[in-house]
Design a protein that fits this description.
It contains 10 helices and 23 strands. It is an alpha+beta fold. The protein has 2 domains: 255 residues, FAD/NAD(P)-binding domain, CATH 3.50.50.60; 168 residues, D-Amino Acid Oxidase, Chain A, domain 2 (2-Layer Sandwich). Strand 3, helix 1 and strand 4 form a beta-alpha-beta unit. Bound molecules: flavin-adenine dinucleotide.
């Protein structure tokens, strides 16, 4: 990888220097260099000559939602277009060097498969199986015996758990389960850094340590951004990819009052465990609405706490929230995992961290495309699936802006998540 001088403010090996934009005029300014903003920048730069600038107030990539991401790629969604979008993005993660054009990317893809342990009738499962297959996803229906043959340590209870009344819980074993063969995990910080590097390689400029303090407008149209040092950068289009801070940017232009996008604190627990590496699949747990996955070595397990309101705290200021998990959340999450994997032997203490989802309260899906204010586009509200969708979302935005296709583009309409859409019909919750 080429090395350049530090004071040019671009990539140095695998790290990123803070810098200021080299010009006051660009075609496109992307606010936010997380996985979404950097995917948009890369996808626009790779298919056009547009002059692209990404500004991010943080010191480097993956300091927002992206850095806390569990980085699961799976495709089971209710809406067929979302299935296809997730699938094409998964192909990008699975072919990361080809997709990014980098010889030596940081991120890679570990295929673990994803098991859905949900309470569904046989006919519901068959419908889901057909929908996934029709949209290209390699999915199997496994009987209880087949699951236990592969992962004997799992308990296959599908009865929802009431954590307020655990004593009353009576396990009820499920009979059939969906298994996504190609689901897996990537490296969230590495993928974000790779996307920044690939955008730069295609000619985009990326300025970390550069916050947006305001939007510049002219006769009601957004014509640029005002940086935190007072400088103005003018452009034809501003894309708001500010993750949990998206509402602040939208409010600067009086945009996007239709959807409620709530930064929400999500708690993750990391636990050591002993014994053989059981290589459990990614497990979506319908009894608790939590999910689990091993860390790559298999010596740790990463647990997303059950999706119940007391563990999902709305946050009014994304710069200030408690980053350590709550004690009762740790205990409950470990109990939930113990219920799913009863024979597990934990060792040492558990650690954890919290990050922010930006939950779209209406339908758990993002808002992508033009806002009602000319010159401002939105890529906001990913509700816990922004990592897996990022390559495809970047393509949808870039295709709309440039009119050009590129490899790995999704087979979905670019206005799928338009601001003026009706809420998509989903099965609800952030698993949507
Ligand atoms: C605990 C957790 C687990 C998750 N697990 C998964 C998962 O398994 N699979 C999945 O698909 N998704 C998952 N997600 C969701 C996914 O990580 C997010 O949807 C995705 O990272 C959002 O990316 P983003 O670029 O929109 O936001 P961010 O990564 O937050 O990036 C926004 C950027 O904007 C910058 N910014 C903000 N305000 C300004 C400003 N005024 N000026 C300049 N820059 C600004 C910030 O510094 C930040 O870098 C998870 C999220 C969390 C928190």
């Amino acid at each position: 990888m080429n090395q350049v001088a530090l004071d040019e403010g671009v990539e140095i090996g695998k790290t990123f220097a803070m810098s200021r934009p080299s010009s006051t005029t660009f075609d496109l300014v992307v606010v936010g260099g997380g996985v979404i903003g950097s995917a948009v920048a890369y996808q626009v730069a790779r298919r056009s000559d547009l002059k692209v600038l990404v500004v991010d107030k943080a010191a480097g990539p993956a300091t927002g939602s992206t850095g806390a991401s569990v980085a699961i790629s799976r495709c089971r969604y209710t809406v067929p277009e979302v299935v296809r979008l997730a699938y094409c993005s998964q192909l990008a993660y699975r072919s990361w060097g080809d997709f990014t054009g980098l010889d030596d990317p940081i991120s890679d893809y570990t295929q673990l498969g994803a098991l859905w342990v949900f309470d569904r009738s046989q006919s519901q499962l068959e419908t889901e199986y057909e929908r996934l297959r029709e949209n290209g996803v390699a999915v199997d229906m496994l009987s209880r015996a087949e699951v236990l043959n592969r992962w004997p340590e799992l308990d296959l209870c599908v009865e929802p758990i009431d954590f307020g009344d655990l004593e009353q819980h009576r396990c009820r074993q499920g009979d059939s389960f969906l298994f996504e063969n190609e689901a897996g995990i990537a490296d969230p910080a590495g993928a974000n850094a790779d996307l920044v590097a690939s955008a730069q390689r295609q000619g985009a400029e990326v300025a970390f340590g550069t916050g947006v303090a305001g939007l510049v407008t002219d006769q009601g149209r957004v014509i640029g951004v005002r940086l935190d040092n007072g400088d103005e950068v003018h452009c034809s289009l501003v894309v708001n990819a500010a993750g949990p801070w998206c509402n602040e940017i939208n409010q600067m232009a009086g945009a996007q009052k239709r959807w409620t996008l709530t930064p929400t604190r999500i708690q993750l627990i990391l636990r050591e465990w002993s014994g053989a590496d059981p290589r459990l699949p990614i497990t979506f747990d319908g009894s608790t609405d939590g999910c689990y996955r091993i860390e790559r070595s298999g010596s740790q397990i990463l647990l997303v706490s059950p999706e119940i309101p007391e563990f999902m705290e709305p946050i009014s200021d994304p710069d200030h929230f408690e980053v350590n998990p709550d004690r009762n959340c740790v205990e409950t999450t470990l109990a939930a995992f113990q219920h799913r994997v009863p024979g597990i032997k934990h060792v040492g203490t558990s650690t954890g961290l919290c990050g922010l989802y930006t939950i779209n309260e209406q339908d758990s899906h993002p808002i992508v495309g033009p806002s009602e204010v000319e010159g401002l586009w939105l890529v906001n509200g990913f509700s816990g699936h922004g990592f897996k969708l990022a390559p495809g979302i970047g393509a949808m935005v870039a295709r709309s802006i440039t009119g050009n296709d590129a490899p790995f583009d999704p087979d979905v309409d670019d206005d799928l998540f338009a601001l003026d859409r009706d809420p998509l019909a989903t099965s609800g919750g952030v698993f949507a």
